[in-house]
Design a protein that fits this description.
homodimer; alpha/beta; Rossmann fold; five-stranded parallel β-sheet; 5 strands
């Protein structure tokens, strides 16, 4: 038994580095942080980018309300404190995905500049790509696919971004998408072009 | 402008399915949940499995104290409630990795049976592989690489699993590793063999 125990220490501990993970995937990992008003198109564009990356054999994953609010963050509400913790957790998870060699596409309103900047700070240089999906409040209110703006205007949704809670637009986003005037596919292509141009699509 | 807006609705929304992600990677995703006493070898074995999977071109990622306690769960302590929330969050993140087509290897003591079973429940059939790294308290106390058992015995570590807090061993783990008598590499190979035998290593 003593002999067998000794084998525990002969195995040299290996850590697979971030770069080795990037090499296996043939591209880098990064966080693509989509931010903007409700109904601005964040989630639809993120899913379109995810689909296009997948077709090109790249590894990506969308973190959005569907898989986060029902799971990891189901114990959080919409108060300013809970929104901050919501974004903090999403940032940390997105970072893990990026380090594993995957493009983490996050689609959350993330209205507070300070919260977004904190995520930027936990990531390395070039690993946080802030994408401002810019649609006017008017456009979003016209779309209103879930009737949320209507509810908020009627005073039935406290803390609703753009109506009863603030949205702090990014000032130095890596990418600004004009969602008032361009369609989903064109905007998704702009994101892919950004990744291509900045070397993310090779290891 | 009206024409351009219309393109928003012509893009058919695609969701990349779990199976399509598995196909891209050439293998399934799953959670490999290592549980056991402090110093039983969880993290070392998980990293050895990660390394071997990586060399074989498979996608995997280790979630452990190093990247979770300093990030996602840095606002949690070691009370029973915080341990439960710690494991819940890790389970949800591991699930996201598994759904993205990656083997999520988690290396946490996770002493409570109920907490581990809750993670099992949020995952689909076959997606949660519980791996009990079985080392006797005696073995772990002899190893004691960080001097934690010594501190706990001296009464300086409240809630230390095995000494001042309980460890509830799994009764129906998918895999039990004999860490008293076998070395790291042999145990890692047992995990790989389990994945191979049960069809996880192909899509």
């Amino acid at each position: 038994m003593t002999e067998q125990k000794a084998t525990n220490v002969t195995w040299h501990e290996h850590q697979v580095s971030k770069d080795e993970r990037f090499k296996l995937n043939g591209h880098k990992g990064a966080v693509l942080w989509f931010t903007g008003l409700s109904a601005c198109g964040k989630s639809t564009i993120a899913n379109a980018v995810d689909y296009k990356l997948h077709l090109a054999g790249k590894h990506s994953f969308v973190l959005d309300g569907d898989n986060i609010r029902m799971g990891l963050n189901k114990n959080l509400g919409f108060s300013p404190e809970d929104r901050t913790e919501n974004i903090r957790r999403i940032g940390e998870v997105a970072k893990l995905f990026a380090y594993s060699g995957t493009f983490a596409l996050t689609a959350f309103i993330s209205p507070y500049k300070d919260d977004r900047n904190k995520v930027r700070e936990v990531l390395g240089a070039g690993e946080f790509i802030e994408i401002y999906v810019n649609a006017s409040l008017e456009t979003c209110e016209q779309r209103d696919p879930k009737g949320l703006y209507k509810k908020a205007r009627a005073g039935n949704l406290p803390n609703f971004t753009g109506i009863s809670a603030p949205y702090e637009a990014p000032e130095n986003a890596e990418l600004v998408l004009d969602s008032d005037n361009k369609g989903i596919e064109a905007l998704a292509d702009e994101v892919i072009a950004y990744l291509q141009k900045n070397g993310y699509l090779s290891a």
